[in-house]
Amino acid sequence: MTVKKELTDVDKDRIIEMAWEDRTTFDAILMQFGLKEQEVIDLMRIEMKPSSFRMWRERVQGRKTKHEKLRNFREGRFKCTMQRQINNNKISKR
Question: Which residues does residue 90 pair with via DSSP β-bridges, in sequence order?
C-alpha cells in the first residue's frame, strides 16, 4: 500500500471526509494533499473498519461525480453563504 507517511491525523480525517463527499473529486484530493485515487483508496482501507470501507467502495465505484472528467457539470459547487474564502482547505481569518 502506498499511503504517504507524512500525513497528520487531521489531514487523514479531512481526506476521509472529502472521499465520502459525493461532489468532491479525487482530483481535488490530489490537488490539496498530493494523493492519487489509488492512494486514497489505500488510506481508506487502512483507516476504516472493513465494513465501512466496503460500503464506501460500493458507493463511489463508478460514481461520475468523483471523477472530474466524467462529470456532466463544471460549475455549481455548493458553498455556504456563511463560509469565507478557503485557502488550502482552511477558512481564512476575518
Answer: 87
For residues 70 and 13, give the distance between their C-alpha atoms in angstroms, rounded to a whole number: 26
pLDDT digits (tens, 9 = 90+) for 10-36: 999 999 999 988 778 888 888 889 999
Q: Measured between alpha carbons, how far is 25 from 68 in angstroms, rounded to an integer? A: 6
Q: Name the grid cell of 31.
A: 490537488
Helix, strand, coil percent content, the chain, rounded in steps of 5: 50, 5, 45
Query: Which phi and psi (to 5°) does residue 87 adopt?
Result: -125, 120
Helix (H) or strand (E) holding 87: strand 86-87
What cell does 59 get? 458507493
* Choice between 70 and 49, residue whose per-residue pLDDT is larger: 49
The confidence score (pLDDT) of residue 23 equals 79
